[in-house]
Amino acid sequence: MKLYYADTTVAIALIIALKEAKLPCDLVRVDFAAGEQTRPEFLAINPKGRVPALVTKQGILTETGALLDYIHALAPEAGLVPDDPFQAAKMRELMYYLASTWHVNHAHKGHGERWADKKESHEDMRLKAPETMRACCAYIEENLLKGPFLLGDRFSLADAYLYVVSGWLKGDGVDVSDYPKLAAFRTEMEKRPSVLAVLSENMM
Ligand SMILES: N[C@@H](CCC(=O)N[C@@H](CS)C(=O)NCC(=O)O)C(=O)O
């Protein structure tokens, strides 16, 4: 398998999950600063011009949540998804929320051009981002995160996802220490070899 990723992006959640699952995968760094994600060579891999994209023997897969589940399906022995249907759905509840709400709110800070053409509209969206990101943090802190991991003591796919996207909070103007469970979750994640590996490789 070959994973296309860029530093600090949501694709790093896949690298953490691959390490947790002990699955081999070639990593291909896409240079966002050079605009590689917009070039025809990359658009042939992912027409959305986004990472992650995973090349498998059967074809190409995109979308973080789908890829995380694929990693679990390839290595069920790693136990990255709970067997209990309710717990598994609780895990996916956070994953869908991160994809549909957290990531989209975050993108309003630096990618206003996706939603509006006027410069003042972009500025308005940028200014709103700290508020919407704080609302996301409060929702997760108060309703979803059991601690130390999402589901309590057991690590699951959603933790890799939450760790990476909560790494963007500082840049979004949000102080994670305002959310004690989220801050403790990040500290706990930073004890795991998978996370220490991506940190030591300066991917985050
Ligand atoms: N819904 C996609 C979103 C992927 C996405 O937006 N990735 C960002 C990085 S976090 C990206 O590739 N952006 C391209 C760009 O900024 O040009 C997923 O969850 O995988």
TrEMBL record:
One of its GO terms (molecular function) is transferase activity. It comes from Pseudorhodobacter turbinis. SUPFAM superfamilies: GST C-terminal domain-like, Thioredoxin-like. The keyword Transferase applies. The lineage of its organism: Bacteria, Pseudomonadati, Pseudomonadota, Alphaproteobacteria, Rhodobacterales. It comes from the Bacteria. InterPro entries: Glutathione-S-Trfase_C-like (IPR010987), Glutathione-S-Trfase_C_sf (IPR036282), Glutathione_S-Trfase (IPR040079), Glutathione_S-Trfase_N (IPR004045), GST_C (IPR004046), Thioredoxin-like_sf (IPR036249). Gene3D superfamilies: 1.20.1050.10, Glutaredoxin. CDD domains: GST_C_Beta (cd03188), GST_N_Beta (cd03057). This is Glutathione S-transferase family protein. Keywords: Transferase. Pfam families: GST_C (PF00043), GST_N (PF02798).
